[in-house]
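Hypothesis: this fold can be encoded by more than one sequence.
Test: take the C-alpha cells below, design a sequence, compare later.
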C-alpha cells in the first residue's frame, strides 16, 4: 500500500487505481487527480517467488511537491501452524528486527506501547528489506536505494481506521518511507523495490540477495555454523532414509555417539557421586547443626575418594552448543514442513495430537508428555544432591516447565529431545552396571 498522504489527496491506500496495461507477468495501475499521476507497476519472475514494484509520480500541478514514497506492508495475526508466529520483520543496519504482530499495539509485559497509533520500533538508513514473515514463509520489499536516508517502523493503525476494518483488516504494518524528495512541476520521480513472497528456501533467498537469507533464524552468530552443519546432516540422512522422522532418529543416535566421550565422563562422575551418597548423608546427619564442619567433612571426603562434585557440570556445559544448534536446526528447517512420520504424526513441523478430550477440546500431545516423563525417569537415575529441594526441582519442576515449553513445539523437535533422553537413560544404566 502507498498512502502518499503528503500530496493532499487523502489516504491513497484506499484510492481506486485503473489498470493501464497488463500481461502474463506484469501489470501497471494508474491514479490521476489534480495534475498528479501516480503509477505502480508489478513485474513478476515466473521462475521464482521474486517480483519488482516500481512506483512513479508525475507532477503537472505547477507547484513543488515533496513526496516521501512511503510503502506499507500490512499484517494481521492468522490462525494455523504456518502463520502462528507471524511477525513484522526488517533487516536494518546489519541485523534483523522482528516484532510479533499480536504484540503490536498491546500494553503490558509483552506489549510495545499503547493502542495509540504511534510507532513502536523505528530506525533510519541502512534498511535492506522490510515486510512480514512466519517461521517458514516471508514477504518483503527491498528498496533498490537501500542505503539512502529513510525510515522504517512498526505502526499500530489508529483506532478510527481499525474500527472500519483497517487496511485489508490489518492491525499492524511495517512501513518504509524515504525522506521528502523535491519534485518540481513538469518532472517525474521513480522508486523501485525488489520483492519476494514465498517459502524460506535458502537457494531462493540467496538468489534474491539483500541478505534475505538472514531471515531464517539459525541462532546467535557464533552458533550458526553448527546449526548449518546439523541442517546439512539432516538432509544427508534424509537422502539415505526418505522419511524425516527416521532421519531425526538417526541424527539423534549420531549426536549421542559423537558426544560419547563427553557423556561418558559426565556419567562416570555422576555414578561416583551416586555411590558416595550414603557417606554424604551420614556427614549431613552428623553435622546437621554446623554447616561449616559439614562442608569441611564433605570436601575431605571428596579429596579422599578423588571425586569432583562439579565433574558432571563441565561436560554438560560442553554439550549445550550441540543441543542449542540442534534446536535451531529442527525448529527452523522448512524441510520438515508437512513431512509425515508414523501413525498420528502427519506433520513433523507441527505439534502432534493423538487424542482430543470430548467436549473440552483439549489436545493431548503424547510426544511432549513422554518427553517430560523421560526427564523424570532420567532424574531418578542421577544421584541425589546434598540439597533435597534441588532434587525435587529436577524431579518435578523441570519436567513440568519443559512440558509446558515443548507442548507447542514441532513434533520433530520433541521427537529428538524425547529420544535423546531415553538414550541417556540407557547409557546411564549401562555405566552404572559396568563401573568397577
Amino acid at each position: 500500500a502507498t498512502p502518499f498522504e503528503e500530496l493532499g489527496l487523502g489516504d491513497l491506500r484506499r484510492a481506486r487505481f485503473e489498470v493501464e496495461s497488463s500481461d502474463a507477468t506484469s501489470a501497471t495501475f494508474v491514479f490521476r487527480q489534480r495534475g498528479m499521476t501516480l503509477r505502480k507497476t508489478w513485474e513478476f519472475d515466473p521462475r521464482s517467488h521474486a517480483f519488482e514494484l516500481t512506483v512513479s509520480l508525475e507532477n503537472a500541478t505547477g507547484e513543488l511537491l515533496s513526496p516521501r514514497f512511503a510503502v506499507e506492508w500490512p499484517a494481521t495475526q492468522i490462525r494455523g501452524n504456518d502463520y502462528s508466529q507471524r511477525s513484522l520483520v526488517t533487516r536494518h543496519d546489519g541485523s534483523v528486527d522482528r516484532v510479533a504482530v499480536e504484540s503490536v499495539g498491546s500494553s503490558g509485559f509483552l506489549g510495545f506501547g499503547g493502542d495509540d497509533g504511534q510507532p513502536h520500533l523505528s530506525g533510519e538508513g541502512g534498511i535492506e528489506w522490510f515486510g512480514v514473515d512466519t517461521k517458514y514463509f516471508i514477504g518483503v520489499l527491498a528498496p533498490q536505494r537501500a542505503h539512502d536516508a529513510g525510515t522504517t517502523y512498526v505502526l499500530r493503525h489508529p483506532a478510527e481506521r481499525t474500527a472500519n476494518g483497517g487496511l485489508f483488516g490489518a492491525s499492524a504494518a511495517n512501513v518504509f518511507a524515504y525522506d521528502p524528495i523535491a519534485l518540481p512541476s513538469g518532472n517525474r520521480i521513480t522508486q523501485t523495490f525488489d520483492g519476494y513472497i514465498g517459502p524460506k528456501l535458502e537457494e531462493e533467498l540467496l538468489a534474491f540477495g539483500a541478505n534475505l537469507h538472514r531471515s531464517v533464524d539459525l541462532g546467535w552468530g557464533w552458533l550458526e555454523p553448527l546449526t548449518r552443519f546439523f541442517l546439512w546432516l539432516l538432509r544427508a540422512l534424509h537422502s539415505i532414509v526418505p522419511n524425516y522422522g527416521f532421519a531425526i532418529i538417526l541424527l539423534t543416535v549420531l549426536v549421542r555417539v559423537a558426544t560419547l566421550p563427553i557423556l561418558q565422563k559426565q556419567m562416570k562422575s555422576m555414578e561416583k557421586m551416586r555411590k558416595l551418597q550414603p557417606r554424604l548423608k551420614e556427614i549431613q546427619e552428623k553435622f546437621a547443626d554446623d554447616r561449616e564442619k559439614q562442608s569441611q567433612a564433605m570436601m575431605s571426603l571428596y579429596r579422599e575418594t578423588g571425586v569432583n562434585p562439579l565433574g558432571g557440570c563441565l561436560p554438560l556445559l560442553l554439550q549445550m552448543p550441540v543441543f542449542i544448534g540442534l534446536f535451531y536446526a529442527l525448529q527452523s528447517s522448512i524441510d520438515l514442513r508437512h513431512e509425515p512420520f508414523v501413525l498420528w504424526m502427519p506433520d513433523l513441523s507441527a505439534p502432534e495430537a493423538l487424542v482430543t478430550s470430548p467436549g473440552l477440546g483439549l489436545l493431548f500431545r503424547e510426544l511432549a508428555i513422554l518427553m517430560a516423563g523421560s526427564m523424570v525417569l532420567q532424574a531418578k537415575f542421577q544421584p541425589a544432591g546434598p540439597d533435597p529441594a534441588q532434587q525435587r526441582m529436577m524431579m518435578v519442576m523441570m519436567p513440568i516447565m519443559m512440558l509446558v515449553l515443548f507442548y507447542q513445539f514441532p513434533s520433530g523437535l520433541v521427537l529428538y529431545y524425547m529420544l535423546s533422553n531415553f538414550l541417556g537413560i540407557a547409557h546411564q544404566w549401562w555405566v552404572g552396571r559396568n563401573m568397577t
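The longest strand covers residues 188-199. The chain is about 40% helix and 25% strand.
Hypothesis status: open.
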